[in-house]
Write a structure and sequence with these properties.
Elements lengths: L5 H13 L5 H11 L9 H17 L2 H6 L4 H18 L15
Helix pairs in contact: 1-2, 1-3, 2-3, 3-5
InterPro entries: DUF2293, UCP036238
Protein name: DUF2293 domain-containing protein
Pfam families: DUF2293 (PF10056)
Length: 105
């Protein structure tokens, strides 16, 4: 029985390494997003990182509400950076968003 393509296995491994304590309810959407066509050209660890940050931003912060209130993308991302890092820390992430770097996703 196959456990998926090499790419799928690499995404699974990268997700486990990046977010060892991510709940299944969050890991599945991150895994699916990391395998999306627009991320296919990226190495699996980068695709997983981008998918994880985007997932946390939209599912676990006020980002969408801020955008709905009229904040531009960069301002809204600035205001939710700490919340993203809190969630990543909760999931024992091996990497966090750096406030001095441009948001990758």
């Amino acid at each position: 029985m196959s456990t998926g393509t090499n790419r799928q296995r690499a995404i699974n491994k990268a997700l486990t390494l990046l977010l060892p304590a991510v709940p299944y309810s969050d890991s599945e959407p991150i895994r699916a997003a990391a395998g999306a066509p627009h991320l296919r050209s990226l190495p699996p660890p980068i695709a997983v990182w981008l998918a994880a940050v985007a997932h946390v931003r939209h599912q676990h912060t006020d980002y969408d509400a801020l955008r709905d209130e009229g904040y531009d993308k960069d301002s809204a991302r600035f205001f939710v950076l700490a919340a993203i890092n809190r969630k990543l820390t909760e999931w024992r992430a091996t990497r966090l968003l750096d406030p001095d770097e441009e948001d990758p996703s």
